[in-house]
Automatic annotation (TrEMBL):
SMART domains, A to Z: HTH_ARSR
CDD domains: HTH_ARSR (cd00090)
NCBIfam families to which the protein is assigned, alphabetical: HTH_metalloreg (NF033788)
Protein name listed in UniProt: Winged helix-turn-helix transcriptional regulator
Gene3D superfamilies: Winged helix-like DNA-binding domain superfamily/Winged helix DNA-binding domain
Domain of life: Bacteria
Record domain HTH arsR-type: where: 1-86
Length: 105
């Protein structure tokens, strides 16, 4: 599974949102998200297999954090769409400015 498919699922996006702010153990994610440990672990496995998160063993627990590589790839994939929408929004802004000034439509 690729990163985009992995984070398409809403619960996994919630996990990613939490991990964006800080590293967490499974227990911390369970408490933060109000989900069962097996459910959180299942989603973490999918995210780990997609390369979105990595786990580090610390003492008796696994601590998860985001892996930046897949997000760079997603950002690169989204770049042309951002440029397209920026262009369209700029055109809309020019159109509205002309309309506000009473110019040609």
């Amino acid at each position: 599974m690729d990163a985009l498919a992995a984070i398409a699922e809403p619960t996994r996006r919630r996990i990613v949102d939490v991990l964006r702010l800080r590293e967490c153990s499974v227990g911390e994610l369970v408490d933060t998200l109000g989900m069962s440990q097996p459910a959180v672990s299942k989603h973490l496995r999918v995210l780990r297999e997609a390369g979105v998160v990595i786990a580090e063993t610390r003492a008796q627990q696994r601590v998860y954090r985001l892996e930046p590589g897949p997000f760079r790839e997603l950002d690169a994939w989204l770049a042309p769409y951002r440029r397209m929408w920026t262009h369209h929004l700029a055109e809309l802004e020019r159109h509205l400015d002309r309309k506000e000034r009473g110019g040609d439509l």
